[in-house]
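Researcher: Predict the fold of HEPN AbiU2-like domain-containing protein.
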Amino acid sequence: MSESSRRWEDFLNPEILKTKLISASIYLAAFEILKDSIIERIETFFTDGFGPQGNILSPEYETEVKSIHKSKVRASLEWLKEQEAITAEDIEAFDKIRESRNEVAHEMPNLLGGESSVDFAQQFERMVALLRKIEVWWIVNFELAINPDFQDAEIDEDGIIPGPLLTLQLMLEIALGDPEKASYYYDEFRKRSNKS
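Model: Structure tokens for HEPN AbiU2-like domain-containing protein follow.
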């Protein structure tokens, strides 16, 4: 079978096409979760109040974050690096993650036709590692640091499961997992909702 015929066969195979579409969708959604974590956590930290348009950012946000770079995500990444939450290598990883995201978003026909160079497993692993690192840093250095219940407590960072990671895990299990296991969350939600 020629390469062209194999690509058409894969494209026309409902299971292969469905898996590719779901994988691409999850990758794009996961990227947005990571990007939101990078930007919104910092914006919340520099919030002085709330107005009709949302957060009112302090003047310090402009001088300490936004002035670093014209791109909000790049400025936020550099700010996190200055705080020693992430490293230059983490920023390089983000750049590779973003390149793959752009390829998925803008070259979808190539992905579906089997011509994509995106290694979903590797990039998704990088994405999860970076998201976890950033979220755990915020939890340990801000949320737990100001909580009197955790003063002088030994924190097991490996035991922390940030909300955005839980969301990704649920997305993966529900969309790509075993159908019986995937419907578990929905069934449990419905059971508990009906009891209320």
